[in-house]
Amino acid sequence: MPQVTNIELSSLQRRAFTLIEVPVVRKRKSNAFTLIELPVVRKRKSNAFTLIELMVVVAIIALLVGILVPVLNQARNHAEITRCAANLHQIGLAWQYYLEDNNYTFSTGGSNGSFFYGGKEPSIASTQFAGTPLVLNHRPLNPYISMREKDEAWGEPFHCPADRPVIGGVADGHTAYDFFGNSYMANPWLLGRRLENVEYVHSRVLLAGDYQWYMSLFASSVDAQFHRPEDWLNILFLDAHVSFARVWPLEEKGYIIIPYK
Ligand SMILES: [Zn+2]
User: Fold this and answer.
1) How many angstroms is it from 63 CA to the middle of ligand 1?
2) How far, in Å, is the centroid of ligand 1 from the Cα of 106?
3) Can you tell me the distance from the alpha carbon of 117 to that of 138, in angstroms, rounded to the nearest whole number?
4) What is the residue range of 148's domain?
């Protein structure tokens, strides 16, 4: 009897263990772990980590771009201003040689003649206005300038590297260089004039400069500032010095004398 009951009990106990305790508990435990604890927690952890990492990376990239873009723009702006000033220095020298050979008298001008003293030929303007008295195609300064390497990136000495398309006016949609063959407008008052008849201090008389000096002074609607900041232009003076100057305040002080009329 006791043996039988023992066997029965043990079989019951076994069943009870195998049926209820071991598998169910195991399943519950394992389910609980796999469904709730382990996988979910792991997923959360890995997701949270990549999100934070991603945000940090994005923030660093944004920071670098934010720092680098203005620095690069500024560097390019400075390089263009320097190169432009070098162009104007060369044009100033060419004028000196030209004046020595031509009885110290500037070449004659016209309505657009202040561009045609030198530069690329042909240009859009010289083709468009061919045969009209507006155009003087002789470009007398060219023989006095060493055109050097015809570098496409920077262009010839008559090409301001920051020259950009004009909005409005006769050259609308074109750069001054493409349209007139020259980014640097000469002072029309000087053209055709003998140097000894210039009654102003030479260091204060504008000889040529970035095209907008003219637009700025006469408040034209044409707007295509070459350099930054706005209203700052490279200007070649009659005494051959070049300065990066702001036109309006200097003109108000009477520093730049442009007796056009
Ligand atoms: Zn320039």
Assistant:
1) 31
2) 22
3) 7
4) 77-253
- 248, containing H or E segment: helix 247-252
Of 2 and 219, the one with more pLDDT:
219
pLDDT tens readout for residues 147-164: 554 444 445 899 999 998
pLDDT for 171 equals 77
Residue 232: burial class (beta carbons within 10 Å; 0-12, 13-18, 19+):
middle
User: What domain count does the chain have?
Assistant: 1
Q: Is residue 5 part of a domain?
A: no
Residue 48 within a domain: no
Mean pLDDT over 211-236 rounds to 74
Q: How far is the CA of 143 from the centre of ligand 1 (A)?
A: 22
Spatial distance between the Cα atoms of 88 and 184, rounded to a whole number of angstroms? 8
Q: How far is the CA of 235 from the centre of ligand 1 (A)?
A: 8
CA of 223 to the centre of ligand 1 (A): 14
Cα 242 to middle of ligand 1, angstroms:
11
- Give distance in angstroms: CA of 164 to centre of ligand 1: 10
Dihedral angle over CA of 220, 81, 208, 158, nearest 10: -100
> For residue 38, is it within any domain?
no
Average confidence score pLDDT of the chain: 76
Q: Which residues of 117-136 are buried (b: 16+ CB within 10 A; e: fewer)?
A: bbbbeebbbbeebeeeebbb
Q: How far is the CA of 85 from the centre of ligand 1 (A)?
A: 7
* pLDDT, greater one: 35 or 90: 90
In this predicted structure, the answer to whether residue 93 has a pLDDT above a threshold of 80 is yes
Residue 96: both structure tokens together: 């000196």
Is residue 129 in a domain?
yes
